Amino acid sequence: MRSLQTYGIKPKSNDEGMSSLHGMQRQWRRSYSHVVEEYTVGLDRDVEILVAQLVNKEKHYQVVSICGMGGLGKTTLVKKVYNHNDIRHHFDGFAWASISQQCQPREFWEGILFKVISPSKEQR
């Protein structure tokens, strides 16, 4: 907020300015499942391990949590798994969801639901 004032940018009100600023930050940081790094180094083995866990018919994993500090390559790894041919043939439905520090639970769950069931405008 202070840097906005430095440059003479004044939001209409404190609450409105901060919420729109957080909204813009969320949009900039959002990741998309269809944008996959073409060349990556050192993730192939990790991708194969995760794919093997998810398609394992004996254990029936449907969710795998990936966590760690920023910059480790979590999103890149998950995109590779999400778009892997074995994964695409194993599961019936797919949804890409990112959770930010300013998570809005309703928006998060609605986003997953809408991606899985693809409702019409009337159903929404």
Automatic annotation (TrEMBL):
Residues 1-20 are annotated as: Disordered. Signal peptide: none annotated. This is NB-ARC domain-containing protein. Pfam families: NB-ARC. Residues 45-117 form the NB-ARC domain. The lineage of its organism: Eukaryota, Viridiplantae, Streptophyta, Embryophyta, Tracheophyta. GO terms for molecular function: ADP binding. InterPro entries: NB-ARC (IPR002182), P-loop_NTPase (IPR027417). It comes from the Eukaryota.
